[in-house]
Amino acid sequence: MPASPRPQLLLFDVNETLLDLSKLHQAVNQEFDSKFAFKQWFALLLQYSLVDTTTANYHDFGQLGDAALDMLAQALGQEARPAARKKELLRLITELPPHPDVVPGLTALREAGFRLVTLTNSPPATLQKQMQYAGLTNYFEQLRTIDSLKRYKPHPDTYLTTCRALGVAPADTMLVAAHGWDTAGAQLAGLQAAFVARPGQQTYPLAPTPTLTGPTLEDIARQLG
């Protein structure tokens, strides 16, 4: 492990980091008849979460996901989907399995004495359903989201407010995420970060190098010891 203090608290991103989005990925691609539709939709979702953060015009992630489906249809020259169909697609985000390495990784980290807490852009009701469906609820001390703050990650307040609420200094806290924008945000706010290098994910070259990098959560757990 690099020469950083052993973190007391681990904050976990949820979507893609813990949960496998393949089912949603396939459904969106099939709906819009494009192998790039999901990536385009997810990019719009993240882009407009930042628009809402910078303009102080908050909508929850479900509302943004719905709007992003409309924008995706428009970008692809297709008709907007009916509200019921969009709701059906978006419901899939609450029915996702964990990646195979997640349960062994969380088990190892919990047994090593780390405090485990989620920090996600999803709203609380969605997060509760996600974790219950995936069978991960009991691994975590708290299931936290950005909803009460009404600023999306990677705004520094999302990380710092969580650290204060849990009574742990940023330097003694590590974000675990599969997104380079998320690890960048955490580190620039003074936290440590572990990047889980899921297929297709990259770190941000203009941000600090993550404290730890590994292909799976099990590997991150081994590095943390």
TrEMBL record:
Similarity section: Belongs to the HAD-like hydrolase superfamily. S-2-haloalkanoic acid dehalogenase family.
Name the CDD domains for this protein: HAD_L2-DEX (cd02588)
Q: Which GO terms describe its molecular function?
A: hydrolase activity, acting on acid halide bonds, in C-halide compounds
Q: Which InterPro entries match?
A: 2-HAD, HAD-like_sf, HAD-SF_hydro_IA, HAD_sf, PGP-like_dom2, S-2-haloacid_dehalogenase
- Name of this protein: Haloacid dehalogenase type II
- For the keyword Metal-binding, the answer is no
Question: Keywords on this record?
Answer: Hydrolase
Species per Swiss-Prot/TrEMBL record = Hymenobacter rubripertinctus
Record lineage? Bacteria, Pseudomonadati, Bacteroidota, Cytophagia, Cytophagales
Judging by the UniProt lineage, the source's domain of life is Bacteria
Record's Pfam families? Answer: Hydrolase
